[in-house]
User: What shape does this take?
Amino acid sequence: MSAGEVLLEVRGLHASVAGVEILKGLDLRLCAGEVHAIMGPNGSGKSTLSKVLAGHPSYTVSAGEVAFRGIDLLALEPEERARQGLFLGFQYPVEIPGVSNASFLRLAYNTVQAGRGGEELDPLEFDDFVRGRMQLLEMDPGFLDRDVNEGFSGGEKKRNEILQMALLDPLVAILDEADSGLDIDALRIVSKGISALRAQHNAVLLVTHYQRLLDHVVPDFVHVMSEGRIIRTGPRELALELESRGYDWLTGAAAA
Amino acid sequence: MSTAALQSLVNQPYKHGFVTAIESDVAPRGLSEDMIRMISHKKQEPDWLLQFRLDAYRHWLTLAPPQWANVRHAPIDFQDISYYSAPKARPKLASMDEVDPELRRTFERLGVPMHEQAALAGVAVDVIFDSVSVTTTYKARLAEAGVIFCSFSEAVREHPELVRQYLGTVVPPADNFYAALNSAVFTDGSFCFIPRGVRCPMELSTYFRINTQESGQFERTLIVAESDAYVSYLEGCTAPRFDTNQLHAAVVELVALDRAEIKYSTVQNWYAGDENGIGGIFNFVTKRGLCWGTDSKISWTQVETGSAITWKYPSCVLLGERSVGEFYSVALTNHHQQADTGTKMIHLGRDTRSTIISKGISAGVSSNTYRGQVKVGPRAQGARNYSQCDSMLIGADCSASTFPYIDVQNASARVEHEASTSRIGEEQLFYFASRGVGAEEAISMIINGFCRDVFTQLPMEFAVEATKLLGLKLEGSVG
Amino acid sequence: MTGSLGRRRPNMDTHLPGFAQPLFRGLPVIDDAWAGVRETARKQAFAAREPGPREESWRFTDLGALYRGEFDAILVPPAAVLEVPELPEAGHRLVFVDGHLIPGLSRPAEGGGLEVRPVSGADAHPGDPIPGTLVPASRDLFAALNLARLATAALVHVRRGCAAPAPVHLVFLYSTAAHATFPRVMVRLEPGASCSIVEEHHARTGQAHLCVPVTELELGNGAQLTYTRVLRQGAGGFSLGYCEAVLGREAQLDVCTVSADGRLTRLDLGVRFAGPGARVGLDGLAKVDGNQVADTHSRLIHGAPNCRSRQLHKCVAAGAGRVVFNGAIRVEHGAQQTDAAQQSRSLLLSPRARVDAKPQLEIFADDVKCAHGATVGQLDDEQLFYLRARGLAAPLARELLTYAFAAEVLRRVPVASLRRRLERELLAHTPG
Assistant: This one.
């Protein structure tokens, strides 16, 4: 993959949950090497977009299309999307008591590797590999022995998401509110992790309510979302403007 | 503070224990087919209703009183009860002013207004004294909205087709021992009918009063909400202080059609007996609602503070798709009171939901049992239940039991039950005291906090009354 | 006297249900130290009601298939050589096949601080526990049958202050169709003693058979016992088990029960706190498939102050399997400072699976902390999506979550090799 190649193309996407339409004709294009930020007030549909792209079964797509490297993404099961290189960092990572983080991470890694014809790692090889990545995120190796997200603090959960992203090395990473609930140190670590994974062959979509993450991970494009559509796209400065002026001037304009 | 002092806080005199000196027409004790014919005749009932009673009576004769409840009492002699008692009054009342002044004073003393002008704004009241309804307020205003709210006897006379259509459909006469007895001998009660699309413009309320020592009270309430109708119904009960036990065996049936909602609230403060367990009402009641229509909702809220024995499980049969059942309960027992109360949520339709919140408070040597059943039938795809049953114990000689039955026959169901116990201990009271809060106030705060989830479900007028009632129970001197 | 009638044979009373009648046919009457116990129990069995759905405690346990069967007692040990489940950590062990001790496979310990030995009425020591002390014949028909057919029991006795150096392994194998066995385990831990016991029941036949195992556990003051019970009764097995424990002051008991398969398995588990400051942990896992039924009845009696109990019971129901959990906690008058918590979680994996849960709290003391919770549900959709979003195929994700559900209990199995064996056998998928 080279910089500039279109990785994800969303056209006229309409989606609903429990009979309520949330996305109402959304367009978005992500190219290799780019970092995009989607901002917007609560309820604008940001998280819905993340979940629809990852294939959450509760959401129904009624119109529009999504091409992932030219493939019809919407026709794929969630696990197939992951194996193709799409990654969703969850806003609320799910706790799975009874499954150790180490087993889970290796299983996910090997599954995704197998899907793309890569080499699978045995437990010892994987242990070395994962510890390296954990250093990057300043994570205690003790994380590996705990159950998936169980009893993790908000910051620990978010770091665990970024660790998974680092292991799975996706082509498109969608990070849903990766900064919510983080204190300043955790924000720095998470941002460092995201920046380190930023590369010419991949693209990152940051879904966020506040621009403080964008101080650390500088986006190439900022999109403003409102009522299920992107109503404004601009350079990184747009985020600063939103910070000082709020969303009303934009959403008001959209309504007019 | 000692436990004894703590105990004294929850002991309060019963304020509704007086007897009204009023001439009553009381039937001789005993139960027989002739007695049932007499009741039916006195009420000038149609034949089908007499037949309903006789069928129920004949079935009742084959039944034995239930033994499974966590309550103990001497066997009841059903031949030693009078099955009919009515205040002797002018046969027909032309207006409120014709109500016997003695009777009117009784209800004023109980805080139940019988004059519309003096009434709580927006509450229509049906007043039941022993076996008969004495008055119903605001009938005219309700009639304008199309709402029928009257005594059961009047409904039998004026709307026999409606009564016949719904009577016994939710609680069949053969349902259980006390329901069968009620079906045979019920004397009066309230009837509400909310026609299609009508939101009842005011709270409906029935006030029940037992006055005669030898009489039982067997009222029958039937509420029907047609499609898209809404009604909130309140019920209050008191009885004088006698050193014998009176039997109260009521049946309440609710029917909610498509998108209808019925909210049924009870503040039960029958006489509970004295501190040695002498006297008090045996409150053996069958209450059940049928969510017949899709998206219908039935919500039971009860504050049970009275009665020597309470045996009562207001239930919901969730037949309609997406129908909702709720049960919110506070049961306070003290001295020798025994309560075995709870609910049944029977999920039959798809995507039905139910919530159970039960708060039991036991003091003295009382026994307080929550008993509930959540059943999910094979066709109740997607059914959901959440139950929370908390107990609070005051003193070392009372008991609290929790018996939830969960029966799930559909794999898509989710059922959650939680229960916990807590106490008001010296440490908590000391903590309050160290912050300048007296024990009485502290207990009241703790109990009100404990019951908050239930009190918020009560209509405003009743929430005030319930809080006051628990406050009264806690009234006393701190040592 | 003409023509001696010999000893009077047990009377074939028609009150005894059909399935149990062959059990007393040709049964030799032995005059030994336990003869009185057997005779009393036999009378109780003949007088007992046949448990049925009318009784609250048997309401959900359909015994119809059992009652339609007929079960013989095996009077001579079978010759077949059976595979014994190994437990490398274990020290002493006793192996029974169809109720008979197999000396060649057993490693008893006699004398000293630890005794692990078979015991019968003929060779019982004066200080040995009396059978039926904790699960008396008056309990019900099955408890009575166990005592009436009392033969050789497994005894574990740890002397005051002694610690068993390695887990004690008690193995019961079942190899013969249409037979009935009445295994018995008696454990006595004197004050300050400690021990870990693994009791395993494995059917080596898929045919119908009946097993009524009874375990009686006595823990003296300050004694510590870890008791693990594994039940693999095979496709045709009926197991109606009883386990009753009584704890002295500051004793500690950790029970872990795991049962899988079995046409019908029931465990009546009772624990009584008889002295203050004692602790109990009860963990259970029951797994059913096909038309199997697993029924767990537990009753925890806080009869003394300052005791603590923790219970976690998990059920996994697939196919048309049915699980029943009836768990009572009773806090008696005066048992202040009780701290009791119970959790019951059931996972339904198939539309035809069924769960009946009935937790019960009965509290007669005010200064206590008691809680129970029960949930019935399916695998969590959000967890499933999370795993799929990480590339796991849906069936694998489901397996992993089912594994995770059961793992919470299996992880508490205190013997590592047993834990691994159960994980391997019970859970199709083992990640890592």
Observations:
- Chain B has one domain: 17-428.
- The first helix of chain B runs from residue 3 to 10.
